[in-house]
Amino acid sequence: MKEIFMNSQQTKSNQLHTNYTNISLVKLIMSLIIVVFHLRPFHNIYPNLDYFINSGLGRICVPFFFFTSGYFIAQKEEINPHYLLNYNKSNTKTYLIWSCIYLPLLISFCSDNYYLIESNVQSLFYTYNPPLIVYPLALIIIVFILILYSGVYYHLWFYPALILSINIVSKWNKKYGLSHLMFLSFILLLFGATETYWGFLSPSVQSLLSNYYNVFFTTRNFLFFGLFYVCFGYTCYQKRHQLKVIVSLKHSLILSIILFLFDLILIKNSKRLNSNILLSVIPFTYYIFFVAMKSKPLLSHIDSKMISSYSKYIYLIHPFVIFLVKTVQFDGWYSIIVAYSICLLLTRTIVTFNHSYKYK
Q1: CB atoms within 10 A of CB 97
Q2: CA angle 47, 53, 55 (to 5 degrees)
């Protein structure tokens, strides 16, 4: 009897390892896609391929990161109700360290684009004509936006968005449950998607929404983006035993891919402020995740935590690598090879150092 119990536990352990390994591999692939997404090597060479990556494929990655974070944090909170405290400390530390690392690049960017920034600020103040007391507060507002909204550098917005979203979802769940928050966060996501589907809105609605976009520029933040996907992932873990799929997961994934491609065709020639939020990514993210979860391990002998570390640091260092690649003026496929080589080399160095330091 004891042997049967041990075998059962081992089977569950292997299944959990399988799930983590596959999900970690998908996250690694997503991180590599993001490198190409921000590098834009085909912008002047293959415009259709550039559109597919920049407005399509690259827009799947961050929602997947949010979704997986929500799912697995729900799992870990079930085991350890105080898990979120350590999670917050770890992610806040990571965010602050990498904000300091990217601060020189931010200063360089502001210096190179000083007159453009000055023109936009003057235009904003001229449009709304705020009282003089607002001017001294402008610097505080800018710092607040950098830290909690946009991030010090363009990819770091993900960390405050993730931290805020996770904490809101966790606390809301403990007090009220998530059914109402799912609905509310979806409405907020629809507002966020207005920048993608701008051309389909009436002029009166565009005029109204312009008051928001003139100040905040984008809806790529925790409120209009991250909150829904984190809540979605968290809810899917809670309802994992109740979720039923009418057709097979793989067939559903194919259908979600078709819907995603239709979405890309729909918005291709429409006016867009940006393409951060595609509504077709919602089912796409769901089915990618669960196909990976339910599939056999692709590389079962590889440590899933190691893969996750590679994914994390590729995401964190890739803008610095892109800065180097563009400074040297590499282009096309060659720029991808160089960027990937440097990213993997630096990531390998950081992961090896962290591993050695941990067990020193």
Answers
A1: 11
A2: 90
Q: What is the pLDDT of residue 107?
A: 86
Burial class (CB in 10 A: 0-12, 13-18, 19+), 75: middle
Contact 322, 38 (CB under 8 A): yes
- Looking at residue 119, its pLDDT comes to 67
Q: Is the pLDDT of residue 31 over 80?
A: yes
Say what the pLDDT of residue 14 is: 44
Q: Report angle CA 119, 133, 123 to the nearest 5 degrees.
A: 15
Token pair for residue 336? Answer: 């991808």
CA–centroid distance for 297 within its chain: 24
Residue 83: φ, ψ to 5° = -60, -35
> The tokens of 223 are what?
């409120």
Residues 52, 30: Cα–Cα separation, whole Å: 15
Distance CA 62, CA 285 (A): 10
Nearest to residue 346, comparing CAs of 327, 307, 320, 323? 320
Find all residues with CB under 8 Å of 305, minimum gap 6, and list them. 20, 24
In this prediction, residues 250-258 reach a mean pLDDT of 92
Q: Which of 289, 265, 266, 263 is nearest to 278 (CA)?
A: 263
Q: Which two tokens stand for residue 188?
A: 């907020």
Q: Which of 347, 287, 291 is nearest to 317 (CA)?
A: 347
**pLDDT tens-place string over residues 136-170:** 676 677 777 778 888 889 999 999 999 999 999 99
Tokens of 114: 């000083």
The pTM for the full model equals 0.89
Q: How far apart are CA 78 and CA 223, in angstroms?
A: 25
d(CA 86, CA 95): 14
pLDDT at 92 over 90: yes
